[in-house]
Amino acid sequence: xxxxxxxxxxxxxxxxxxxxxxxxxxxxxxxxxxxxxxxxxxxxxxxxxxxxxxxxxxxxxxxxxxxxxxxxxxxxxxxxxxxxxxxxxxxxxxxxxxxxxxxxxxxxxxxxxxxxxxx
Length: 119
Description:
The protein is mainly α and 119 residues long. It has helices at 2-15, 18-40, 51-57, 60-118. The radius of gyration is 30 Å and the shape is rod-shaped. Keywords: Membrane, Transmembrane, Transmembrane helix.
């Protein structure tokens, strides 16, 4: 189960990688933009993506949704990492502050004890 959880935690990073985004952008341009251009420009009819190629590589909606999922996963991962880092820094600073306050109280107690001895 730990291996499955570790794998699932890696999925957003994989989806938001530069390679994945490049693949989705390539598919979008090839299946959508290039396909539309081949419909309007007669000379490009011979290089138009066939129905089989479009079926194998995916349809337009899947390509766009995969690109959107990749970007969302990447931003979610980045935000989660930033928040985790901030929480760790906050906890560390809080612990240091508590330690400093405790030391300050000890010094004050020590000074008050010295003041009582001098009287």
